[in-house]
Design brief:
Chain lengths: 353, 242
């Protein structure tokens, strides 16, 4: 039965081969709305929680496997919309760590699809390069079977130089796991003497997340009508516009996306005000902390004699912290690249589960 | 230019629609006021009974400006009557925290009025009917300063302890123990008041599985509308990953 499912999925994958790179043809009304919306403010980074595949399958009397394939096809469609609306970064919640609680049969279906689709994208790397699509994977991919981990690493490396557009696949991901990973990373940096405790701030925290290279999420869309974030990008989307759309993921279409973008634009002024005031708050807090740190360092150095709290001391402390943070972030990114190369270089284990 | 003009018109319609939602809600609440101003906790709970059990921790997020205290305290008291033991009050700028004394006074006054002539003591009365604010009720004031900043401070503290050997590894469980804003319970339900749909800097760690319900306004809020909104939460299937 499992072989039957695998070969069916392969056949469907091949049939859908070019759907991902097909440009949609828009009606005059759609084109009109595209031109109107793109004349306004657009999100830089949109996140999707692709919920409702199984309920879609039940409602439409199709198999779960077919609905997952349709769900994957939908990502291609969304990429096309984002290209049309000049949105450069898209994140999709493809497989949560919590999803490992699903039945073995369902996990096998999902892993087979993941492997087939990733391998297919690898064979179309030229097309991805032509469109400038970088595929990034956020999450703990070592939780997956090794052949999937390896293929994902290969795809990430192969598209790393593409810079027009970023598709961020969240696989083996939860936000809490991601934040804990970032804290572990920074703490190990402190333990190794590369950072000081006081160097840890929000900016560094954000850079140490799996999505560190991406801008914050401006718009987060969840399909299927469920109104929670399910441990998805809760740090990155802390100031994002939230859209809970009452359609299943395979049904999410152009007009739902237009509705989400219009609602984002409606709230953009208030969201920007929140972000600006928060930035000012952080800057103020950062300066006070840095001044205190600088003063403490200065006092220590001068044995408390002739100790003067001044701007020069603060600036020197700020510069020192920034240097350490930049160096640490570069090291973290280098480490990530080396890890990907090591994962991609592993001997491929043929087949799946 | 022409498309910017059309976009402006579209947004005028959207903005008007949102404002109309708020106005319509206020009008409905005024219409219901004649009937529901006589509600006390017994009547409220009799309408709430078919809905099921409320979560232990509810967060109320106020994204509107200048909500009158007499409207603000109502959903708090209703949550108390429904058996909620921890209520977090969030507003972006932290103005609610500055009005703590006035809110406390308004809360006690409304609670006393709402629980008048009740045959049974609603939750929150504490032992010996001492009134709202007694154990086991907890009300927390939260603002954006308690958001990601708390996680950064927790990260610094755990880094210090890792270096000094107090902890040997960092896990989700022990990292959570270093956070100060929400010790113990996390909000299972958030009710957001206002037409802006955002977390607005709310502490991110506790809301990973929180159901987020929206009401267009807290102005002139009515108990039946509140119960109808809460009903949405109680009928939601909690699948969590499966």
């Amino acid at each position: 039965q499992h072989y039957f499912i695998q070969s069916n999925l392969r056949a469907m994958a091949e049939e859908e081969e070019d759907q991902w790179f097909k440009r949609a043809e828009y009606s005059w009304l759609q084109s009109f709305f595209i031109k109107c919306i793109t004349s306004g403010k657009l999100p830089e980074h949109v996140g999707f929680i692709m919920d409702g595949n199984r309920r879609y399958a039940k409602a439409n009397s199709i198999s779960r496997a077919e609905s997952y394939v349709m769900g994957f096809e939908k990502i291609g469609e969304i990429l096309d919309y984002c290209e049309t609306f000049h949105i450069k970064n898209v994140s999709v919640y493809a497989f949560s760590i919590e999803n490992f609680k699903r039945s073995d049969e369902e996990q096998a279906e999902l892993f087979t699809l993941m492997f087939e689709k990733t391998r297919h994208l690898l064979t179309r790397a030229d097309k991805l390069a032509e469109k400038g699509i970088r595929v990034k994977v956020s999450g703990n991919t070592t939780l997956f079977p090794p052949h999937i981990t390896q293929t994902l690493a290969e795809l990430e490396l192969k598209t790393a130089q593409n810079s027009e557009f970023c598709l961020n696949l969240c696989l083996g991901y939860t936000a809490r796991d991601e934040m804990t990973h970032a804290v572990r990373c920074m703490s190990e940096g402190v333990a190794a003497g590369k950072l000081r405790v006081t160097d840890i701030n929000e900016a560094l925290f954000g850079e140490c997340l799996y999505t560190g290279e991406l801008p914050p999420v401006d718009l987060l869309v969840r399909t299927s009508g469920v109104v929670r974030l399910s441990d998805y990008m809760i740090w990155q989307a802390n100031f994002a516009a939230l859209q809970f759309v009452k359609v299943f993921w395979p049904d999410f279409g152009f007009w739902h996306f237009v509705g989400a973008l219009l609602d984002y634009q409606r709230q953009e002024g208030v969201l920007k005000e929140h972000k600006d005031t928060y930035r000012s708050f952080l800057e103020g807090m950062g300066r006070s902390e840095q001044a205190a740190v600088g003063h403490t360092e200065h006092c220590t150095l001068d044995s408390h004699e002739g100790c003067v709290w001044n701007e020069e001391v603060t600036q020197a402390s700020v510069r020192g912290s920034e240097r350490r943070r930049e160096g640490f972030v570069e090291e973290v990114r280098r480490g990530r690249r080396e890890q990907l190369q090591a994962l991609a270089a592993r001997e491929l284990v043929v087949g799946g589960d | 230019m022409i498309y910017e003009g059309f976009l402006f018109v579209i947004h005028m319609f959207l903005h008007t629609y949102c404002q109309l939602q708020v106005v319509a809600q206020c009008c409905f609440n005024i219409a219901r006021w004649w009937r529901e101003s006589k509600w006390n906790a017994d009547v409220f709970l009799s309408h709430a009974k078919p809905l099921g059990k409320m979560p232990g921790h509810v967060s109320l997020m106020f994204l509107e400006d200048n909500v009158p205290i007499e409207d603000l305290v109502k959903p708090i008291v209703w949550c108390i009557c429904l058996g909620v033991t921890t209520i977090s009050l969030y507003d972006y700028y932290g103005k609610l925290r500055q009005q703590k004394l006035e809110i406390d006074a308004g809360l006690r006054e409304y609670y006393s009025d709402f629980t008048r002539d009740c045959k049974k003591s609603p939750p929150g009365t504490g032992s010996g009917g001492k009134g709202v604010g007694q154990d086991p009720l907890h009300i927390k004031f939260v603002s954006v300063e308690n958001g990601r900043t708390d996680l950064v401070h927790a990260a610094r503290d755990i880094a210090k302890d890792l270096v000094s050997g107090v902890v040997t590894e960092i896990t989700q469980v022990n990292f959570e123990s270093y956070q100060k804003v929400f010790t113990g319970s996390h909000p299972e339900l958030m009710i957001k008041f206002g037409t802006v749909n955002t977390l607005a800097g709310y502490p991110p760690w506790p809301v990973h599985l929180t159901e987020i319900l929206s009401m267009p306004t807290c102005y002139l809020i009515s108990p039946s509308h509140f119960l109808k909104t809460v009903q949405n939460y109680l009928t939601i299937e909690k699948r969590v990953g499966k």
